[in-house]
Amino acid sequence: MQAMEIAQPGGPEVLRPITVPVPVPGHGQIVIRVAWAGVNRPDALQRAGLYNPPANASALPGLECAGHVAAVGPGVTRWRPGDAVCALLPGGGYAQYALTRADHALPVPEGLTLREAACLPETCFTVWTNVVQRGSLKGGERFLVHGGTSGIGTTAIQIARALGARVFATAGSDEKCETCLSLGAEVAINYKDEDFAARMRAADGADLILDMVGGSYLPRNIKALADDGRLVQIAFLTGSKVELNFAEVMTRRLTITGSTLRPQSDLAKARLATELETHVWPMIARGALRPVMDSDFTLQDAPQAHRRIESPGHIGKIVMRVDHDD
């Protein structure tokens, strides 16, 4: 099969085409004929040598895809060859066929194309585990998400709104702020023009903040939280080390937590998939959640896809078309 490999750590140009064997499913696994593959920032981090895949995962980049089941391993009862699925992958999505656990796959929601479905797994798994499970977001709470027009941000706005939360978002342009408002944010803050911490304090503070920026945002997030508020950290685009006064964390009873998705156990991801099908897939069915699409590329244009995701201008998800029969 055709795939794109990381020839060596570096910029987008190190992504190159390669021919490799089609994977064979083991017990509890399926092989998906990939129609569309999602492109995510962790892919770019892996390409740069900053985010190594787990020991038992494919070295090829790609953490999500949509397509049709091509083969099933022993013990798989839910899926049959030909079934349309989208799936969270341990790696290997930048290829014509991808291997994953059967219980990490979900049916393509009715009404969505395979192109749209390829955008769901990585963001939905990430948002649900961090906003709902770890962040304990409840209806009526004030929720602030940074990077509101990223794939994570656009998904988080819609899920939080569907749960009845009051949604606040930051973004880097007026156009991006308008997108956040159109998705259900009550307030969109252009961080280049306004202090988000002051804006949140004026609104009585955020009960929950989802942040992937880090760096100088960390102490500002503390200021932006309401008493008893929670901060969930999922990435550090501007650095993971900062000086922070924990006395305020103590006196205001704040909670700081965070997680990454890829290193979690297969069982934890399977349980997340079940929760998504139970709680998030109905949001899609009733029109409360829809992937926001930025652009698409071919598999051979993976370097251009990485340049796009590393640019400041994109809004929503970036995907690559792999199988031109779909």
UniProtKB/TrEMBL annotation:
Q: Which residues form the Enoyl reductase (ER) domain?
A: 10-320
Task: Please name the Pfam families in this protein's record.
Answer: ADH_N (PF08240), ADH_zinc_N (PF00107)
* Superkingdom, taxonomy of origin: Bacteria
Q: Where is the signal peptide?
A: none
Q: Name one GO molecular function term.
A: NADPH binding
Q: What UniProt keywords apply to this chain's record, in alphabetical order?
A: NADP, Oxidoreductase
- Entry keyword Oxidoreductase: yes
- Gene3D superfamilies (UniProt xref): Medium-chain alcohol dehydrogenases, catalytic domain (3.90.180.10), NAD(P)-binding Rossmann-like Domain (3.40.50.720)
NCBIfam families per record: quinone_pig3 (TIGR02824)
This protein's name: NAD(P)H-quinone oxidoreductase
